[in-house]
Structures are given as C-alpha cells and as structure tokens.
C-alpha cells in the first residue's frame, strides 16, 4: 500500500480527462512517452510568454534571466541523477542523440580496427545502430550478450564476452520491451575491472526509480525528458568529467568555442564543448518543471504504486490461459508485453484502441530481440503512477473483446 492516490494525481494531467473513440482515455503507452502535467505545460507557456531570449550571449536582462534558468535546470538534473558536477550534464535532443554523441565523439577517438563493442540482446535500435555505424567506419565488431528465456541478461555469458578487445559496453538500464531491470552496477564493475568504458541507456529508468550515476559508476548515462513527464526534443547525457574532457567535440558551431580564427579554433570547456548552436531553452525549462513535479511526489512512492499496478496486471493476465506474457524476469519495471493466442498484435491493438485504450503494438524498436524470440511483435501495456487498477480491468475487458472478435 502506497501513499499515492492516482485520482488526485490524475487532475494534474489534463490529457487524462479526454475521451478517445467516445470512451475515457486509458493511457498505457508510457514507455513510448509519458503525459505532461499542467506545471510542465505552464512552464513552457511562461517561458515563451515572459522570458524568451537566447542564452549565454546577451548582456541584456532577458538573456541573463534565461541563462540563469537554463543553467539552474542543469543543476537540477545533476542532483536528480547524483552527478558530481553540473558540467557533467550535456543537453541533447534526447537519449538517441546522447548515444550518437558518444559513438561519434568518444568512438572516433577510442575505437580502432579489430576492437569490440559489447551490447545486449534486448537493446533498443538507438543503442544498436550508432554502434553499428561506428563499427562499420572503424572495422570494429559489434558483440551481443545473450538473454535467459525469462528476459534477464545472461551474466555468465557477459563475463565471458568481456575480452581483450572489448572497448565499450553499452547496455540498457531497463528494457522497453521486456521490462527487465539490468544489474547495471555489477555490469559496470565487471567492465571497469578490465578497463572497459560503460554507457548505460537510461531512457526507461529515470521515471521509475532513483538513479544514482556515481553509485552505478558508469562513464555515460543517456536519457530523454519526454519519458520523465517532460517535453519532447530535450534530454541529456551524463558523462564522467575525465572521460568528457578527453573526448573531441561532437558538432561544431557557436557555443562550443572559446576563440575562432580561420586557422584554428579553441574549444569551449564542459559542458559547452558538446553543445553547439542555440539550445532548446524552453524545453530545458519544461524538463526542470517535470523534475520538480516528480521529486515532489517522490520516486519511492511512484515506484511502489507502479509495482502494485504491475503485480495486479500480471495476476490478471496470467490467469488468462490464452495470454502469453513475454518477459518474466524477477524485479521487472512496470510494463508488460504479451500475446493473445496467436492473434497478430496489430489486430489486437486495433480492437483495444477502439475501447479507448492506448497500448503499443509491434517490435518496440527492438527488432533483433523479436527475431531472437521468434515473434513478430507484442502488445505492450506500460504503466505510470497516474494509472489505476480500474484501467487494468478495462484492458482485461478489451482483451475479452479481442478474443470474441478473432477466436
Ligand atoms: N532506449 C530505450 C530503452 C528506449 O525505450 C527509447 C525510447 N523508446 C530510447 C532508447 C530512445 O529514446 P528517444 O527516442 O527519446 O531518443
């Protein structure tokens, strides 16, 4: 039993009051993107109404105020993930750009012919393709750590695959398809014992649990604001100061320079070295409002309620002999992938949608994982702390409708 009263929380999220197909919306696609509370929407409106101006370059009042607000959020994120310094937080467009930044910049300087990059069998395309591109360019090899049948990482195989040639381990904190929570601290410790750099894809983790990058010990941690109740198009990369300082810049342009002549450019210091061009100030400020909002509720409370929802949904879905749950690792995060007796996920999803319920169907950007499981996709219900058990009951009714229609 937790202190969360979802009915009280729900009034903070205007979209949850709307109807879809004439039915009250049930939003179970939180792993794709979370909804935004009114305070985040207000922060965006207030920024563009009263503060809009370019940062770091104006002596004028608005520019100075915008710069202060922009840099305050960096400190907020620093404390949120417990980084040592605020300059270890680089603003990006999101998790995907953060991983691309590391692959392009760190990869350019540190990967050579014959080197290996180790990922896992449950990675999102955004933690596969940037490494493939790097490997192709450098003549390096991408290795994939296998999973156990329940969807947990095979840690024995992982230990065996950390080899002489491994330069980078890039693994997700939480699988967006299976819900598996990986032992990232252990993963990092084992890699660091062999001098291997570690990137953790935190896209799914930040909204569900307290993340402490110093405790994990990783070199990089990538995330997106839109999965943490903030705006789209903004996110971040945590990087350890020493590692970031040793990296070449990512993109060139304004902001990332100290001095430019046609002969030579002196690059700026952290974090600006990695932030070329005018940044997304308004959305940074919206992200700050989202962090304040969920910090006010408390990640422990959020995690506890989401686990109650997960347990309830798992019990209901397991009781249906025609439902097969994909991903049953212990200690899962609050999402469930499942199939209904061979019915194509897209067909099932269409019926479920007509009941006003938003679930995701398909490969969830984890096509190689689907291939290894021998399935074409799943139906995925992913929960947030504003969801209720009554909504899960409505999903069960929708599943009955799907069976009526197709079986
Ligand atoms: N990694 C994982 C595990 C994800 O779930 C996602 C988003 N579905 C991403 C990376 C990419 O995040 P974004 O699209 O916000 O860059």
TrEMBL record:
Under Enzyme Commission nomenclature, its number is 2.8.1.7
> Which CDD domains does the record associate with it?
SufS_like
Q: Which domain of life is it from?
A: Bacteria
State the needed cofactors, names only.
pyridoxal 5'-phosphate
According to UniProt, the reaction catalysed is: (sulfur carrier)-H + L-cysteine = (sulfur carrier)-SH + L-alanine
Q: Name one GO molecular function term.
A: pyridoxal phosphate binding
| Alphabetically ordered keywords of this record | Pyridoxal phosphate, Transferase
- Record-linked InterPro entries: Aminotrans_V_dom (IPR000192), Aminotrans_V_PyrdxlP_BS (IPR020578), Cys_dSase_SufS (IPR010970), Cysteine_dSase (IPR016454), PyrdxlP-dep_Trfase (IPR015424), PyrdxlP-dep_Trfase_major (IPR015421), PyrdxlP-dep_Trfase_small (IPR015422)
Pfam families, per database record? Aminotran_5 (PF00266)
Q: Where is the signal peptide?
A: none
Which biological process annotations from GO are given for this protein?
cysteine metabolic process
**Matching NCBIfam families:** sufS
Question: What PANTHER family is this protein classified in?
Answer: CYSTEINE DESULFURASE, CYSTEINE DESULFURASE 1, CHLOROPLASTIC
Q: What does this protein do?
A: Catalyzes the removal of elemental sulfur and selenium atoms from L-cysteine, L-cystine, L-selenocysteine, and L-selenocystine to produce L-alanine.
Annotated family: Belongs to the class-V pyridoxal-phosphate-dependent aminotransferase family. Csd subfamily.
| Protein name, as recorded | Cysteine desulfurase
């Amino acid at each position: 039993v937790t202190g969360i009263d979802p009915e009280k929380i729900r009034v903070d999220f205007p979209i949850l009051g709307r109807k879809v197909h004439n039915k009250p919306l049930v939003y179970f696609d939180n792993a794709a993107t979370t909804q935004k509370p009114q305070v985040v929407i207000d922060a965006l409106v207030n920024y563009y109404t009263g503060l809009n101006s370019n940062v770091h370059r104006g002596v004028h009042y608005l520019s100075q105020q915008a710069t202060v607000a922009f840099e305050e959020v960096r400190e907020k994120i620093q404390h949120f993930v417990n980084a040592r310094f605020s300059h270890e937080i680089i603003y990006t467009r999101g998790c995907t750009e953060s991983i691309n930044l590391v692959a392009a910049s760190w990869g350019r300087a540190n990967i050579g012919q014959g080197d290996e990059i180790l990922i896992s069998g449950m990675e999102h395309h955004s933690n596969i393709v940037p490494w493939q591109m790097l490997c192709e360019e450098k003549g390096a090899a991408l290795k994939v750590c296998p999973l156990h049948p329940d969807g947990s990482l095979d840690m024995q195989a992982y230990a065996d695959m950390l080899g002489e040639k491994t330069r980078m381990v890039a693994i997700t904190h939480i699988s967006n398809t299976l819900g598996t929570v990986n032992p990232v601290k252990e993963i990092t410790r084992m890699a660091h014992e062999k001098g291997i750099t570690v990137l953790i894809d935190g896209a799914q983790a930040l909204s569900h649990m307290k993340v402490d990058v110093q405790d994990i010990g990783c070199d990089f941690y990538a995330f997106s604001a839109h999965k943490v109740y903030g705006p789209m198009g903004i996110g971040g990369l945590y990087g350890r100061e020493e590692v970031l300082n040793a990296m070449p810049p990512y993109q060139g342009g304004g902001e990332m320079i100290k001095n430019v002549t046609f002969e030579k450019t002196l690059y700026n210091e952290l974090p600006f070295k990695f932030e070329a061009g005018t940044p997304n100030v308004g959305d940074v400020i919206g992200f700050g409002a989202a962090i304040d909002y969920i910090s006010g509720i408390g990640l422990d409370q959020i995690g506890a309620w989401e686990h109650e929802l997960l347990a309830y949904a798992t019990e209901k879905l397991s009781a249906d002999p025609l439902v097969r749950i994909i991903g049953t690792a212990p200690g899962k995060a609050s999402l469930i992938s499942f199939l209904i007796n061979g019915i194509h996920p897209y067909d099932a999803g269409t019926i479920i949608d007509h009941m006003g319920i938003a679930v995701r169907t398909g490969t969830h950007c984890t096509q190689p994982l689907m291939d290894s499981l021998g399935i074409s996709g799943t139906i995925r219900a992913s929960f947030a702390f504003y969801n209720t058990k009554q909504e899960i009951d409505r999903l069960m009714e929708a599943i009955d409708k799907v069976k009526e229609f197709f079986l």
